[in-house]
Sequence to fold (226 residues):
Amino acid sequence: ILNVEQSPQSLHVQEGDSTNFTCSFPSSNFYALHWYRWETAKSPEALFVMTLNGDEKKKGRISATLNTKEGYSYLYIKGSQPEDSATYLCASPASGYSTLTFGKGTMLLVSP
Amino acid sequence: DAGITQSPRYKITETGRQVTLMCHQTWSHSYMFWYRQDLGHGLRLIYYSAAADITDKGEVPDGYVVSRSKTENFPLTLESATRSQTSVYFCASGGSGSWGDTQYFGPGTRLTVL
Fold:
């Protein structure tokens, strides 16, 4: 079983703060890294899929970077808003197939 | 409507009873997945299916049975429910099997086993 770890486990910031959190994964046999956003009482929704070392993806105020050589990805949120409050999951396939191993997530709370 | 649906959304049952959770998707995705979400564990894969009549175990398959006679449906059965199977269950579907395929999640079923 692939070991995907996320830190911190939870984060509480004020509106307007920028924040970032980390996903770590084994650097050997890397295929892809997925980021999902999971709002309370809803289902996870895909944010990004990243495959190449040095990849950087952006969606509005959210961006992510990927370092496959050292086995980590950062997710950044610029100018956090209360609607950004959610759990952010990362996941990686254990092999070249569609099954994903998810990290336990980083729970972000943005206070007005 | 296109998408992925799960039923029931909430279910309370008793230990030892058989329970079936339904999942239906309209995208014609080849792959479908069942996860359970538990505090402290995140999402864990129970079973997945690559196509009709092809299923395989995930990380936590014990106590569960799946079938996939049609591409669009992927029911999950708890043959004899136990309290440890109290959880939120998510069904997902996604693409053709590439490691880059996004998975699309259903709304979840909250199951309580008394």
